[in-house]
Write a structure and sequence with these properties.
The chain has 247 residues and is of the alpha/beta class. The protein is built from 8 helices and 6 strands. Strand 1 and strand 2 form a beta hairpin.
């Protein structure tokens, strides 16, 4: 039967919300990539879906693998099964997940890229986009000028979602998060000099627009791909079925 949201459902969704599309920098739960959740006496089974059948296999594997890891950290979750639906490499990825084969064990000689390096690249891009949002916020408020930005520190930022996001992304790539840490820095944490600020902000804005544009495009593709299906969309959440004894 299809269940009302229970505490276990909420725990599953909370765990999955920590899984981020590396390219789009958004949780897979917000993107509508979680298709369904099945609870049974053994544990939990989650089905994922993507905007196209040819989405990059390494990204697809990374998200499915991260979902598996997140769910396994959930106390009382039982046996975890994560399945990727409707992808040209679904069989290969699902077999790899089921046997804990890892990225290279799943793709063999096709695994040319280092998955962790790929993940690190997108984390750095996410930081650049988040840094640009925080800097532009201060400029638009008129509290800081372009010339003053190199001196901007984390403690100068407002207590808001953008700042929390920036701190989280800095921590993810090993940058300092102390209150007196400079905001406008390069990937190694070195402060950007005043003469380079305009160019760095333009480049950062390009990165941000690329991430946001891709996310918008993928949402459109997903909506088109599953238009007319009876599955629940990203706003109302995935189909949740509770088959547990006594449920």
């Amino acid at each position: 039967m299809t269940a009302q949201m229970t505490s276990l459902d909420a725990e599953v969704m909370s765990a999955l919300s920590t899984v981020v599309d590396p390219e789009l920098d958004e949780p897979i739960t917000d993107l509508g990539f979680v298709r369904s959740i099945i609870l049974d006496d053994l544990g939990v089974e989650v089905h994922l879906r993507l905007p196209t059948s040819f989405c990059s296999p390494n990204f697809a594997y990374l998200m499915a693998s991260d979902a598996m890891d997140a769910l396994r950290l959930m106390p009382g979750g039982g046996v975890v099964r994560v399945m990727l639906d409707d992808h040209h490499d679904s069989d290969k990825i699902n077999l790899g997940l089921a046997t804990d084969a890892g990225y290279r064990g799943t793709f063999g000689n096709e695994a040319h890229e280092d998955l962790e390096e790929l993940r690190a690249t997108f984390k750095r891009k996410a930081h650049i986009a988040s840094m640009e949002r925080s800097c532009m916020q201060m400029l638009q408020r008129g509290t800081w000028t372009l010339e003053e930005l190199p001196l901007l520190e984390l403690r100068d930022l407002p207590d808001c979602a953008k700042t929390k996001s920036l701190v989280r992304r800095r921590a993810a790539i090993g940058l300092p998060t102390a209150p007196d840490s400079r905001v406008l820095v390069d990937g190694d944490g070195v402060a950007i000099p005043e003469r380079d600020v305009p160019l760095r902000l333009r480049m950062a804005a390009t990165t941000r627009r690329s991430i946001e544009g891709n996310a918008h495009f993928c949402r459109g593709l997903l909506a088109t791909r599953y238009a007319g299906s009876q599955e629940i969309d990203a706003i109302t959440g995935p189909v949740i079925t509770d088959l547990r004894s006594g449920a």
